[in-house]
């Protein structure tokens, strides 16, 4: 079932149930009150007739012609049969019942009252009292059920009919409104589905362009577009990585092949310098393969951390010391400003990997005689590690993407500084796995500062 049908039927069902319950309760309450009103009205009418007859009747003379005519007119007006008997049960006055039967037949034949059922003929007997004593009997007859007259029945019939008409009109209006609302909700969702299917079939250029006032649908649309842009960017980065890796692996292999062919053909003599060159090329390929292996490790950063308590100051100093020979050979400096004897509960190996990635990254991008400063300090509830260099820096265009997988800026694509573009991604994942935050500030030509904040244990 489509969303439009489901929403339309759901709204229509809710409206039907609500109106039906409201109508039934209202109709029941009105019927109950109206029936009570008719009973009270009937009693008032009867009491009035009894009072009139009591005033007009004389025990010695009975009714005058004028009084008789007045009683007849009242009976015809109120659709009643009135009979008066004296205390000896002798009939003194009786109105015409044919008038009542005639009215009943005429009303039942009329189109708008064909469904009215006046019921059977009913007679009620009351005492005729005067001056506190019984002087006769009054008989009042009428057509009806539980004192319900033809006017009352017609009113109830009209009321019920109006309820059904109102329900029908409300259902039509509710159906129209539900269809409009359902289409407003379903149309953007259909477009989002179409764009998602396009992405699923490989078209990462697909985007959702909809205008909606519904907050959730707008957020969903933006999320789908963001997902498409992210996937598209990741796809470009993967293709770029594949191309870079193919180029960088092919270059040393081609060099090795050419040199070995020269040795086989006797063009070159096997010397120590040539073998050292081959060894460097092999080391370079091993490094490339190791970086490829790190891609798989990146997917495993959500594994449980092996946390132990250790001296983080000592571990950072050890990593710094391991880099000093490389810095000395390059003519650069690595400066340590580490607060001593700071203890943490972390994964020791992953901390070493974090520091190694940041320091090696800084080392690659500093010039000869450049400087890298590594510091550890306490700021409020955080343990802050900072790695600062005065190297090439990162452009504003590349800065937002440096933590993305496989991303490499154009300046890092040469042989000396090249990498796979996942070192910083792994670093960020390790930092966040410990509940930390990593931030970077850089300006092209003015160096880079990486700052890590770990919450104190």
Automatic annotation (TrEMBL):
Annotated membrane topology: Multi-pass membrane protein
Reaction equation(s) it catalyzes: ATP + protein L-histidine = ADP + protein N-phospho-L-histidine
Its EC number(s): 2.7.13.3
Keywords: ATP-binding, Cell membrane, Kinase, Membrane, Nucleotide-binding, Phosphoprotein, Transferase, Transmembrane, Transmembrane helix, Two-component regulatory system
Pfam families according to UniProt: HAMP, HATPase_c, HisKA
Main localization (coarse): membrane
GO function terms (MF aspect): kinase activity
Start and end residues of each HAMP domain: 183-236
Segments forming domain Histidine kinase: 244-457
Spans through the membrane: 7-30, 163-182
Keyword Ligase attributed: no
Localization, UniProt: Cell membrane
PANTHER family the record matches: SENSOR HISTIDINE KINASE CPXA
Protein's name in the database: histidine kinase
């Amino acid at each position: 079932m489509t969303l439009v049908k489901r929403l339309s039927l759901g709204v229509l069902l809710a409206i039907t149930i609500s109106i039906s319950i409201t109508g039934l309760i209202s109709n029941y309450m009105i019927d109950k009150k109206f029936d009570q009103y008719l009973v009270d009205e009937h009693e008032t009418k009867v009491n009035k007739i009894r009072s009139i007859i009591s005033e007009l009747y004389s025990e010695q003379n009975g009714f005058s012609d004028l009084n008789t005519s007045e009683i007849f007119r009242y009976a015809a007006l109120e659709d009643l049969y009135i009979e008066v008997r004296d205390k000896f049960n002798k009939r003194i006055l009786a109105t015409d019942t044919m008038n009542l039967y005639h009215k009943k037949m005429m009303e039942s034949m009329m189109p708008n009252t064909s469904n009215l059922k006046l019921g059977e003929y009913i007679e009620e007997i009351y005492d005729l009292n005067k001056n506190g004593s019984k002087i006769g009997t009054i008989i009042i007859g009428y057509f009806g059920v539980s004192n319900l007259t033809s006017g009352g029945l017609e009113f109830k019939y009209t009321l019920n009919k109006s309820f059904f008409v109102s329900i029908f009109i409300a259902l039509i209006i509710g159906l129209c409104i539900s269809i409009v609302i359902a289409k407003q909700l379903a149309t953007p969702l259909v477009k989002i589905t179409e764009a998602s299917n396009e992405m699923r079939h490989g078209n990462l250029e697909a985007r959702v362009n909809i205008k909606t006032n519904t907050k959730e649908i707008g957020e969903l649309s933006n999320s789908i577009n963001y997902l498409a842009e992210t996937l598209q960017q990741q796809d470009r980065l993967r293709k770029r990585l594949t191309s870079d890796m193919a180029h960088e692996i092919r270059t040393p292999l081609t060099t090795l092949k050419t040199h070995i062919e020269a040795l086989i053909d006797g063009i070159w003599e096997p010397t120590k310098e040539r073998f050292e060159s081959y060894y460097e090329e092999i080391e370079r390929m091993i490094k490339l393969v190791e970086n490829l292996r790190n891609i798989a490790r990146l997917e495993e950063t959500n594994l449980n951390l092996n946390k132990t308590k250790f001296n983080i100051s000592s571990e950072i100093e050890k990593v710094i010391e391991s880099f000093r020979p490389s810095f000395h050979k390059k003519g650069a400096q690595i400066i340590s400003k580490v607060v001593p004897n700071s203890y943490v509960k972390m994964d020791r190996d992953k901390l070493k990997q974090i520091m190694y990635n940041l320091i090696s990254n800084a080392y690659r991008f500093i010039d000869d005689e450049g400087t890298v400063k590594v510091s550890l300090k306490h700021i409020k509830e955080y343990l802050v590690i900072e790695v600062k260099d005065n190297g090439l820096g990162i452009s504003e265009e590349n800065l937002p993407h440096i933590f993305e997988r496989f991303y490499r800026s154009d300046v890092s694509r040469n042989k000396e500084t090249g990498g796979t573009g996942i070192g910083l991604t792994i670093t960020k994942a390790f930092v966040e796995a410990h509940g930390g935050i990593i931030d970077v500030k850089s300006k092209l030509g003015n160096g880079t500062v990486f700052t890590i904040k770990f919450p104190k244990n």
